[in-house]
Amino acid sequence: MSENKICVGAIGGAYGVRGEVRLKSFCAVAEDIETYTPLTDEAGTQHFHLAILHGIKNGFAARIAEVSSKEEADALKGTQLFASRDQLPSLPDDEYYHADLMGLDVFDTGGALLGTVKLVQDHGAGDLLEVQRPGSSDTVLLPFTLAAVPTVDLASGRIIADPPEGLF
């Protein structure tokens, strides 16, 4: 993924028979996804001009100008939607885009390398950093809370963590 693109949503498949799609938004204010159009796929080869029609369970029903049939909508199932970073709002000092955290090195408060952030997971109860241990495929889920992660330094590409006892 390009550093100037942020994943803001995904297409869940067709909604109805006229080419509408099920849309899942990853934006803090879910409806804001509509303001970032045109969106692109991960490669940047397909462009999507979308309009939200109404809310549905777990997302929205939306119309994409480039899609006119149920078959075309179904073919887009699973497509992640990306917005240009310069379209997105600036964040306060204590908030981060998930894409900015992935790949950062994680050190403990004593300076020992714990691993690298492989993924940021959000299951509704708070974000978790999936940290891949150095020289291993093993991962550890670190709560992304102020207590467990007191410092995030994007400029130097590192996170200082104070993980719960026994986690690492």
Tell me what you see in this structure.
With 168 residues, this protein is mainly beta. It folds into 2 domains: 5-87, RimM (Elongation Factor Tu (Ef-tu), domain 3), CATH 2.40.30.60; 98-161, Roll (SH3 type barrels), CATH 2.30.30.240. Helices cover 6% and strands 41% of the residues. It is built from 2 helices and 13 strands. Strands 11-10-9-8-13-12 form a 6-stranded mixed beta sheet. The protein has a 5-stranded antiparallel beta sheet with strand order 5-6-2-1-7. Strand 9 (113-122) and strand 10 form a beta hairpin. The protein starts with a strand and ends in a 7-residue tail after the last strand.
Helix content: under 10%
Which second-level CATH architecture of the largest domain applies?
A: Beta Barrel
Low-confidence stretches: none
CATH uppermost class of the largest domain: Mainly Beta
| DSSP strand tally | 13
Write down the oligomeric state: single chain
Integer-rounded radius of gyration: 18 Å
The helix tally amounts to 2
Largest beta sheet, briefly?
6 strands, mixed
Strand content: 35-45%
CATH topology term of the largest domain? Elongation Factor Tu (Ef-tu), domain 3
Within CATH, the superfamily of the largest domain carries the name: RimM
Which terms would index this structure?
168 residues; mainly beta; Elongation Factor Tu (Ef-tu), domain 3; SH3 type barrels; 6-stranded mixed sheet; 5-stranded antiparallel sheet; 13 strands; elongated
